[in-house]
Known about the structure:
Blueprint: H1 18-32, H2 43-54, H3 57-69, H4 76-101, H5 116-147, E1 166-167, H6 169-174, E2 187-188, E3 200-201, E4 208-209, H7 210-219, H8 234-251, H9 255-265, H10 268-281, H11 286-294, H12 304-318, H13 324-329, H14 338-371, H15 375-378, H16 383-395, H17 400-433, H18 435-438, H19 442-457, H20 465-475, H21 479-509, H22 515-539, H23 552-580, H24 585-592
Helix pairs in contact: 2-9, 2-14, 2-17, 3-12, 3-14, 4-12, 4-14, 4-21, 4-22, 5-8, 5-17, 5-19, 5-21, 5-23, 7-16, 8-17, 8-19, 9-17, 10-14, 10-17, 11-14, 14-16, 20-23, 21-22, 21-23, 23-24
Amino acid sequence: MTKRQSGKEQSLPAVKDEDEASQFVDSNQAASGTKPREFWPHHTDFVLSCVGYAVGFGSIWRFPYLCYKNGGGAFLIPYIICMVVCGVPLFYMELAIAQFSGASPLALWEICPLLKGVGWGMIVISGLVCIYYNIILTWVIYYLVRSFAARVPWSTCSNWWNTCDCTETEALYFGNFTDANATDGREFAWPGNTRCNLTGPIAANLSQTASDEFWRYNALQQSSGITDLGGIHWGLFFSLAFAWLIIFACVFKGVKSVGKVVYFTATSPYVFLFILLVRNAMLPGSWRGVKFYIKPVWSKLANLDIWHEAALQVFFSLGPAWGGLITMASFNKFKNNCYRDSIIVPAINCLTSIFGGFVIFSVIGFMAQQTNKEVEDVVAKGPGLVFVVYPEAIAQMPLAPLWAVLFFLMLITIGVDSQFGMFETMTSSFIDEFPNQLRKYKTPFVAAMCLLEFLLGLPLVTRGGIYLFTIFDWFIGTFALCIIALLEIIAIFYIYGIRRFLNDIESMLGHRPGYFWVAMWCCVTPLALVLILVSIAVNFTNPVLEDYKFPPGSLVFGWLLGSISVAVIPIVAAYRIYKVGKGSFLERVRFLMKPTPNWGPQQSCVSTGPEVVKMLPA
């Protein structure tokens, strides 16, 4: 018996509700020797998991920087528009199709076997991003450990890693040389600095702050280039191992363990953010940063770059096409209101990004006040904002170690959710694809995957790891994600059919989506994705890390990394066409564009009306 049948073909036992249906499925599968698939214990577990997955490091460092770069408050207009026309429709689509089928990114493509490579592409992207995303978590853990001190180590220049160019912020701008052997306010030397024990006049162009040197020469121990990886940074090695232990502890029991963890990891960042916002608001000059953040520069709206940046930020922050949303929604019960979730989660994600901007820019305003600079001269992009600018500001605060601990704890809770969402995408997909072999051994399999990802991440904790990190971050998940999302739309709305999809949603929610959603899915959203792809192609530049120029070989490596997830799509399609075995090429393609007999509503769905068929395993 197949999953999708008409109600006339077979009568099934009467089931009162979803819980009873789940028990029936569990006992049926147990009798067959296959461990049943899990469900979220509570709806709140799913919502918090989606919120944690969507709200990641980019909400703290990328969104504020984009606001600064693209006209402050004016950036919110294209951001919200792109959220409505592109982000939310994709989010709703993935939640609905995954909840209906109860299938992970691989099993989902029974809907269109020809494009099963799209599911493999999602797994490849998630696996590659897991490698370098956990490196950010590694840096955060390293900073957190070093914060437990009487004085944060990035506040002084009298350390073994400092150079002659190191300058403490207070000394440079206020003539406070309490940590230097100065004689007249113009001479200096940093006692305890083994790399510089000379005295002399302060150079006018000193720009290496203590926090900058801690980041380069302690946290990274940065080498001269990507061709000089150097040895393992053992501090980062153990931090990386601890990061993967955290991920394993969160996901080793599947959604049951994740559902418990997210109550802390998805909510605590808001507590930390609120505490930091209150503290930052009391700092002198904080209003300068906030004013810069919210003051709109309307002329920027005429620049196409701002729309390009807004679309990418929405796309990457919400997480469609990564496979994570499909994975999490596949554990929902059949009657869950996925439409409501598709509105709530993007709204929370949007508001969190805006709220995080206030936290970051208030402290940037403080730094501008302390250093007598303009706000735009203090803003940094990406890791520099989190690991240089913000720690430097913390070093100027009373009780600096306390605020450092709170800040880096917040980053850990933000990063862990997104990381185990991507990791669960990989493990659940493999387990669903090979249930008889893997489902009963889920914990050892998850442990093996954690170990594999840990080993693959070791080159990124070498002294040249920051260069590899830049390559990973630059090439993975840009054009590939847009292509995957576009193929999803083509498969679901043009091959499977918009009417079928609307009927599937009606069977879950009891009503069909309106014309707005049809217009978004069939016209506006795919057009937006095409424009984003064109924009990426036109505006693409080679990776940048300060003044370092990456050699051609590293660029080839980057393109290979970024292309794997796309290349697997035609490879899998060709393999499946070959395996069909009968008929002409076009006949095989047409056959593979039809849903397989195994496609249909998830096994525990329950009918509340004659239009829905209750499907239970034969």
